From TrEMBL:
UniProt name for this protein: Nitric oxide synthase-interacting protein zinc-finger domain-containing protein
Membership in a protein family: Belongs to the NOSIP family.
UniProt key word Coiled coil: yes
A single cellular component GO annotation: nucleus
Annotated coiled-coil segments of the chain: 78-112
Alphabetical UniProt keywords: Coiled coil, Nucleus
One MF annotation (Gene Ontology) recorded for this entry: ubiquitin protein ligase activity
SUPFAM superfamilies with a match to the protein in the record: RING/U-box (SSF57850)
Region feature (Disordered): 1-29, 152-189
Length: 339
């Protein structure tokens, strides 16, 4: 763009280079990095501990775990599910208690309404009886024209506990004085309220907020990698064949790069070599061995047992550092962005 072009003043004040520089130094924007081979898990390492497996087991989806690590994970998830179920049962009990209290209140309201009607009916009957006994010589029209005060004066006064108030004498009654027990304390630090102060800036802690309703928890334990249900009986013991020059007593396995070989052909195993586990024997062989040798007669070459397609479990191997391996090698961390 030349200096005298039409849109020469339309360039951004905050340039792209400045944005990239501020993002790297200030932490704004999505942080993205391509992983190298050193940041990729080896094929024989546990998906939880990221260390070479001591007692390896594999799931039916091909994910490798250390037996102790995956059993501790399953036990922990079961305890967590049991605790969630206890909280859910307490919520159901509270709901049932609220329903029972509401039904009891409704029944009490109906009973009070019936008693009020019954009391009004009994008073009317007593008034009629009294009028009929004292004014037998008067006609019905005289009662209709008699002032209300005369009719009330003819009725004997009722005890204070059973006196019925009318609209005319409401102005004579004085309001009851409020006692110290009925008056509410305005201080939020009185009694046990000091330890239960609400946070008015958090919606879930306001006085009018209700507890979040819990849903019925799922009792299944899911694989931490695949997200599918997993049980202890689904775990299959895995056997790796050590290379000829590898001795775990002299040198730790984590320090050896090429430590395992195929149980049939003797080829080295690694992230760049697709491999699978035979369910009948538990040994790890290469997929090339399966396609060229084992699938011809579908017999386990180690134990001699008959194999099916479900007995061959392809292992989920790690990446190689190359984009052609099919493994996602880009790591992204979303962070606040400057607009």
């Amino acid at each position: 763009m030349t200096r005298h072009s039409r849109n020469s003043t339309a360039n951004a004040v905050y340039t792209y280079h400045e944005k990239q520089k501020d993002s790297s130094t200030g932490g704004y924007g999505t942080t993205q990095m391509r992983l190298s081979k050193d940041a990729i898990k080896e094929f024989d390492c546990c998906n939880l501990t990221l260390q070479p497996c001591i007692d390896p087991v594999v799931t039916k989806d091909g994910y490798l775990f250390d037996k102790q690590a995956i059993l501790e994970y399953i036990v922990h998830q079961k305890k967590l599910n049991a605790r969630k179920m206890r909280e859910y049962q307490k919520q159901l009990e509270r709901k049932q208690q609220e329903i029972d209290e509401q039904n009891a209140n409704d029944e009490q309201k109906k009973l009070n309404k019936f008693l009020e009607k019954e009391a009004t009916y009994s008073v009317n009957q007593s008034v009629k009886t009294l009028l009929s006994s004292k004014h037998q010589d008067q006609t019905l029209s005289s009662f209709l024209t008699t002032p209300k005060s005369l009719l009330l004066s003819s009725i004997p006064p009722t005890p204070k506990s059973t006196r019925i108030s009318t609209n005319d004498d409401n102005h004579d009654e004085t309001p009851a004085t409020t006692t110290s027990s009925s008056s509410s304390n305005l201080s939020n630090m009185a009694g046990n309220q000091a330890t239960q102060l609400p946070s008015f800036w958090i919606p879930s802690l306001t006085p009018a907020a209700k507890k979040a309703e819990l849903k019925k928890p799922d009792q299944h334990v899911y694989c931490p990698i695949s997200g599918k249900p997993i049980t202890m009986k689904d775990l299959l013991d895995v056997k790796f064949k050590l290379a000829n020059n590898v001795d775990p007593k002299k040198r730790p396995l984590v320090a050896v790069r090429d430590r395992y070989v195929c149980a049939v052909t003797g080829d080295l195993l690694g992230n760049s070599v697709p491999c699978a586990v035979l369910r009948t024997s538990g040994y790890v062989v290469t997929m090339d061995c399966i396609n060229r040798l084992i699938k011809l007669d579908m017999i386990d070459p180690i134990t001699g047992d008959k194999l099916t397609d479900d007995d061959i479990i392809p292992m989920q191997r790690g990446g190689t550092g190359y984009s052609g391996s099919g493994v996602q090698l880009d790591a992204k961390l979303p962070t606040p962005a400057m607009q």
